[in-house]
Specification:
5 helices, Ubiquitin Conjugating Enzyme, four-stranded antiparallel beta sheet, disordered N terminus
Length: 175
């Protein structure tokens, strides 16, 4: 009987340990997840988005590129972003910022982004590709009800020509 009890206790403690490891990722599982996401992104044929780790030795800091969608003020423009993942990824969203100067209702002058999936609507099912596609979509469909740049939000609705002029004043091309 004591063998059965010890076996049950051991089994319960293994189950508890396993359930803890699925709720709080360790550094190795974060790295493995990011490696998988990198391969998926490289194999994807989604045009206009890309992202890679800044170095082979640190998978937690990435740099991405987003091309502006067609039929928007951002058409034919490219923007750099940074993605910084913490040890709780994918249970916490990465910190994503525009590196390129940006003129957009939901991006402040420092590159900070107001996008629900990067804040309160984040889910562990999202990945780097989801983030990049959401940002690309945001370029053509800003949320003017929650602007970080009120002037850009107003001009988006009222004066597209002036909006484009101010966008191009801030825009910096890169290779």
């Amino acid at each position: 009987m004591s063998t059965t009890l010890a076996s049950s206790s051991s089994s319960a403690s293994q189950n508890k340990s396993q359930s803890n490891s699925t709720s709080i990722p360790d550094g190795q599982s974060v790295t493995k997840r990011l490696q998988t996401e990198l391969v998926q992104l490289m194999m994807s044929s989604t045009p206009g988005i890309s992202a890679f780790p800044e170095s082979d030795s640190n998978l937690l800091n990435w740099q991405g590129t987003i091309e502006g969608p067609s039929n928007t003020p951002y058409e034919n423009l490219k923007f750099k972003i940074s993605l910084n993942f913490n040890s709780n990824y994918p249970y916490e969203a990465p910190l994503v910022k525009f590196i390129s100067p940006m003129w957009h209702p939901n991006v402040d002058m420092s590159g900070n982004i107001c996008l629900d999936i990067l804040k309160d609507k984040w889910s562990a099912v999202y990945n780097v590709q989801t983030i990049l596609l959401s940002l690309q979509s945001l370029l053509g469909e800003p949320n003017n009800k929650s602007p970080l740049n009120a002037q850009a939000a107003q001009l988006w609705d009222e004066d597209p020509t002036e909006y484009k002029r101010l966008l191009m004043l801030r825009y910096e091309e890169f290779e």
